[in-house]
Amino acid sequence: MRYVGARIPSLIHRQLAAGRGQYVADIYLDGMLHLAVSRSPYAHARIVRIDTTAARREPGVVDVVTGEELREKTRPIPQVFDPQSMGAKAVDTYALAAERVRYAGEGIAAVIAEDKYAACRAAERIEVEYEELPVVVDPVQAMAAGAQLLEPSWGDNVLLAQKFNAGNVDAAFQEADGRLSGELRTQRYTAAPLEPRGYVAASDPFTGELTFWASTQSPHPLRVFLAETLGLPEASIRVIQPRVGGAFGEKIPMFQEEPLVAYLASKHGRPVKWIEERSENLLAGGHAREMFLTYEVAYKTDGRILGLRARVVADVGAPSALCGWAMSYVTAYCIPTVYKIPNCHVELFSVVTNKCPWNAYRGFGKETASFLMDRIIDHVASESGQDRTEVRLRNFIQPHEFPYSQVSGAVIDSGDYPKALRRVLEMIDYQAFPKVQAEARREGRHLGIGFGQELTPEGCSVPNSTLVSGYDAATVRVSPSGTVSVLTGVTSPGTGNETAMAQIAADALGIDIADVRVVQGDTEICPFGLGNYSSRSVIIGGSAVHVAATEIREKMAKVAAKHLEVAPEDIDVRDGRFSLRGAPTRFVSFQKIADLVYRHAYEDAREVEPGLEVTRYFRHPNVYHQPELDGRFSAYPSWPNQAVACIVEVDPDTGVVKILRYCAVHDSGIVVNPLMAEGNLHGGTAQGIGGALFEELVYDEIGQLTTGTFLDYTLPTAVEVPHLEVEHQETPSPFTPLGTKGVGESGVTGPLGAICGAVENAFPELKLRFTAMPLTPQRVWRALRAAGYPGGVS
Amino acid sequence: MKILTQLMVNGQRRRLELDTRAVLANVLRDELRLTGTHVGCGTGSCGACTVFLDGKTVKSCSILAVDVDGCEVTTIEGLAQNRHTLHPIQEAFAAHHGMQCGYCTPGMILAALQLLSENPDPSENEIRHAIAGNLCRCTGYQFIVESIAAAAKALRESRRNGS
Q1: Distance from CA of A726 to the nearest CA of B (A)
Q2: Confidence of residue A794 (pLDDT cuts 50, 70, 90)
Q3: Which of A8, A10, A13, A116 to mutate to test the interface with B (most CBs of B within 10 A)?
Q4: Which of A249, B33, B90, B122 could be disulfide-bonded to B126 (CB atoms 3.0-4.6 Å)?
Q5: Contact B97 A9 (CB under 8 A)
Q6: A611-628 average pLDDT score
Q7: Contact call for residues A482 and A594 (beta carbons, < 8 A)
Q8: Using an 8 Å Cβ cutoff, are A714 and A278 in contact?
Q9: How far apart are CA A535 and CA A638, in angstroms?
């Protein structure tokens, strides 16, 4: 049987259903100490004095460390991206803050103790004298002259300013029939994986070997970063990724707690464990998304867009070594997404403030670019009197125009946007909707329909980065008995790509998937690879598995050909047999060839090198790191996309939005496992629904987070997420051996534009235009009253 | 302070000297190493720590262990007949992709068990409301809902066959 394309249930789910998956919190070692972090209550303050005397006196306390000690004994945390290669500023960050705190929740000291109660109690006994500094919480104000500076040496609060240009925008605005402008504020929100972050470190005081278990996405890069930060030889560190309880980008290294745990384990020669509390995760685990966008559009009466000026101001929080700030770059980089706008000017300002630093979150800025374009298209449709779907169809890049070089220099590999949109309109029966809407209105119900057009470039690769590049590795090893081990450099953050790897290997080798075992997430066992992010595991890691397994198959086919006394090119491989093409009864089993290679190296397998083990690296070809003359480069090799249509019902008395139908057509090229791809799309969509309707990290004017638990940072439940209707459209990538494009981040974007547009469409007569997210009942209710919906503001 | 506490956990009597500050979830995990009970929030919001306490689901992160002295607790590890098999609900979750990372799964399965013991043939809407106290960040719930419906069907059929 062929496995690629089949709905194979996960190979590890019975273990997880049994409750026997081992996550980092499940690791218990003899003599293990527990770590608690003391965090700043202030958003911006100078640390005048730290007194650890009382904390040290607490029973069970082994050590109390402050930023001063970490600054002396460790090195700055390496940057994920080389800021200079992207024109950004950077600042040295250590495992704990010293001298100054820049956001509420920043770690200033840490305690290790015999149990977690003692550690937490002692952390509360650390006495800190702070001198408060003025707080910057608004990115636009942070850019104004005279604003308080986060990093005085920078001279301003702008971490990165960037421009992308194409065509002649001024001329386009002169030529146009109509011009409009608008704005969009996206709220700050976060990945919130159900398993918080956590690390366990154990150090052998005699050999100096450090074993580090981490709920991380990238074990090998984390090992590089730990070695650099702690000044240890890389070879003495082993990073192990146990099962990971969701990551969604948030667990891309390296957080301050990672070197902190490792440092203390090395210092004391005893294992140290830190498991993040949810409150810490929401306060200091990495945020995302908060942007202020403005746009001006020039268009023809038929809805064709001639010119666009877009300005992105991103509030990336306090500067850190995390890669999150780059999400704002990606937002600017992706505009105008799936549309062909010949005259375009995009301007980006990534601004630092006294809030939690950004870390990666599924979507990585792409979602905001697509959301902005959905808002722009809906706006143009409304002003030009055209149908919203017609305006989309009129401005799409056409299928024959790929590979298409977008304004930023991004090269979009392939796609068929009109086909996906037309299909989703059929699924939701768009033609019938006006009637449905009118009938509902007669019953006093307000239904609306909206559209989301998602573009989610994947497989990110940037110059001079330890972590972010377009290559990865796989080792395929056939044992003497003919079973297969696949060891990958990519990892699974709980998404199930190990099953996809097994499918790809089983197909390439022509064997039963039950004979394949996949091993991931251990720097001692697996080949060097960059882990999981940017949906790269199947695109890049899966391609590496395919290439390595194919090489093994060709080697085995040579031995089989000799055994069958035929030519190697006449050999077919399937169902665990090497057979003569056209004569399936003339065969030799896969196991027999493995046996010959290992046990008959001087006889039957004399013509091949002994052993059946291959490590291959795959480098995605659709990446261009040689900047063109105008500084543009292409970082994303793969461009999955999705068309979404959804119908909502809005209760005008409460402002509550209910999703009645949600349809999507998704194109991630060839789908390796439709069951898992759909599961992933459902999950992404639920996160997008959370972002559209519920989730918001709210800071007050003095930089205090007011939504620090799941009681006030509300994730959607099974009741708010509707039944999702998802179809696949397969436009293969021309650049990967299997035509795969990646699906990991897909789904999160579509709901934003689709729901927003649908809520507005539920009251066509009011001409609503939402400019701030999320669409909470309060925000919808107020917008309705402001637009003149009867009922007034009571 | 420590208090002697007795619990019946997965059918086994346990006598434990417990810190009065310890919540049930931590006792199950740290003392008994029943690590299938996961902690996702510590505020009773996410449901990853769901266990059965005297036959009803509770969020074990929000219950002091010394307060449930004498009670009967069933965790995910106590669902199947032995270490090598799974309960039909667990089998349904594995077969229908009712999970991704597996972190919410034990709590989700116990919530499903509570539902199916009260309502053997629930509608989609009833299933969705029954798991509304359990958050999942990976799946968007759809395949969880399908898994529970499939488990309900399997359990009804096995009951009909008298097995």
Answers
A1: 11
A2: very low
A3: A13
A4: B122
A5: yes
A6: 88
A7: yes
A8: no
A9: 10
Asked if pLDDT for residue B93 goes beyond 70, the answer is yes
CB contact under 8 A, A193 and B140: no
Query: Averaged over A584-601, what is the pLDDT?
Result: 97
Whether A629 has a pLDDT exceeding 60, the answer reads no
- Which residue, among A155, A62, A146, A151, has the nearest Cα to A110 in the 3D structure? A62
CA distance A35 to A501: 36
Of A375, A325, A391, A333, the C-alpha closest to A353 is: A325
Strand order of the β-sheet with A471-478 is: A516-519, A484-488, A471-478, A613-619
Q: Give CA–CA dist A640/A742, Å, rounded.
A: 7
Q: What is the pLDDT of residue A790?
A: 83
The Cα–Cα gap between B26 and A316 comes to 36
State whether residue A573 sits within 8 Å of chain B by CB.
no
> Across the interface, do A14 and B91 touch by the CB < 8 Å criterion?
yes
**In angstroms, rounded to a whole number, what is the distance separating the alpha carbons of residues B103 and A787?**
44
Tokens of A597: 């290679």
- Tell if the CB–CB gap between B102 and A21 is shorter than 8 Å: yes
**pTM, to two decimals:** 0.97
Asked whether A280 and A38 are in contact (CB, 8 A), the reply is no
In this model, does residue A49 exceed pLDDT 70?
yes
A537-583 pLDDT per residue, tens = 999 999 999 999 999 999 999 999 999 999 999 999 999 999 999 99
Rounded distance between C-alpha atoms, residue A331 and residue A749, angstroms: 12
3-state secondary structure of A571: strand
Maximal CA-CA distance, chain A: 92
- Residue A621, both tokens: 């070809």
Residue A579 and residue A586 in contact, taking contact as beta carbons nearer than 8 Å: yes
Residue A17 to residue B91, Cβ atoms within 8 A: yes
Contact assessment for residue A683 and residue A747, using Cβ atoms and an 8 Å cutoff: yes
**Would you tell me the crossing angle of helices A257-268 and A219-230 to the nearest 10 degrees?**
60
Please state, in angstroms and rounded to a whole number, the distance separating the CA atoms of residues A602 and A619.
36
Positive or negative torsion for Cα A780, A786, A792, A793: positive
Nearest to A682 among B42, B91, B139 (CB): B139
Q: Is the Cβ of B52 closer than 8 Å to some Cβ of chain A?
A: no
Backbone angles phi, psi at A746, to 5 degrees: -70, 150
Side chain identity, residue A301? T
Residue A686 to residue B140, Cβ atoms within 8 A: yes
Q: ∠ CA(A343), CA(A349), CA(A352), 5° rounding? A: 165
Residue of A692, A755, A754, A746 whose CA lies nearest to A456: A746
User: Would you state the pLDDT for residue A632?
Assistant: 65
Does the pLDDT of residue A792 top 60, yes or no?
A: no
Determine the Cα–Cα distance for residues B60 and A793; give it in Å rounded to an integer: 43
A793 has a pLDDT exceeding 60: no
Computed over every residue of chain A, the mean pLDDT equals 96
Please answer whether residues A201 and A212 qualify as being in contact, where contact means their C-beta atoms are separated by less than 8 angstroms.
yes
